[in-house]
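A quick word before the example. In earlier lectures we treated sequence and structure as two separate objects. From today on, think of them as two lines of the same record. Here is Glycosyltransferase family 1 protein written that way.
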Amino acid sequence: MNIVCIAAAEWHGMWARAQQLMVRLAVQGHNILYVDPPITYIAPLKNPILWKRRWREKKGLQTMEPVEYENGSSDGRLHRESGQIYLFKPPLFLPFHGMKRTINRKNQEIFARKLVEALDELNWSKPLLWTYLPGTCDFINASESIKWSSVIYDCVDDHGAFTGLHDPQAMQEMENELARNAHVVFASARALQEKMEKVRRDVHLVPNGADVEHFRRPHQDTIQMPLSPQKPPLDLPQNNKGLIGFVGGLGDWIDIELLAKVARYRRDYDLVIIGPVETDIRPLQGLENVYLLGRKPYQELPAYVQRFQVCLSPFKLNELTRSVNPVKIYEYLAAGCAVVSTALPEVVPFEPTIAVGRNHLEFLRHIDAALEQDSPEKRAERVALAEEHAWESRLNQMWQAIEKTL
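And the structure line, produced from the sequence above:
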């Protein structure tokens, strides 16, 4: 099939659910048009770096290079996808589209015209629409000339709970309309499923997963080794201390003060943070054992994660994170790493394989225990748990529901 995916994360950004699913659909022979999320004309006020990069980028349709992908087979060999992936950069949006429905409609009308041109260029007819953004409820109305074979809404965030320039009520109204008009609705967390079930009863719960082969491959034949035998990345600390790690964006949903406490509490270890900085990190500044390495390409992440003695999931506990199902915990487990997390509802069921700290002191004590009690047997147990939550099985579950609508 031809699939248009309107994503909430950039294709070249931090890899998450949308990219993982679309790559696997391409492996199965489907063609993918991946649409990066839009930015507005006032984006520099929030993220000047994003603005500069997106302003210079070519808008419209791009053909992606073939993607190498581990297909989950036992031989661990790389296989190239048989479908083609295209990338679409949408036009700049007018600001406040998350607050005013009239502005969102205008933006979606402009976006729809540009996307219709891209689909004409590709000569696609009756594509499937797979969306992650509530505002696309107006895109569906604006793209009436496109005869969608099916409309899929994959709900992975509580959009109304984000901070920023949006009206929670307006966002909820748009999301409800999208859910009502979609042929299939998925939810990545129980809280999201319960929220969407207020609109329709047939919401499918499909949690996030792991690219198991990707994160375990460098040492899958030497799982009893505490570290990958490959040489460490050059920007990791070279002072022979142990490593405690976090992979993910530093947004206002991350407990920065907790990370600072970890660094101060375990000065005999280095705290390595991989991901973009999008919030105030002053509590971390000036701490000599904190290393902010920035965003790393997805293909390079296992080389870092496999060298962490403990991996952290330090989310704040609030309305937004109540519905978060962190991809990172599955990836940590796939690498065989010990994981310490705050008490997210979606993580608590993984106790005791994942240590859950219900306050800062308990979180720190779990780090101590993980450092002292790790073993080859526990690493193998974590990888086995990750295998139960592989993206391949998630996609199979989703596609079974989708096929009934085609």
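Notice the following. The domain at 212-387 is CATH 3.40.50.2000 (Rossmann fold). We will return to this example when we discuss secondary structure assignment.
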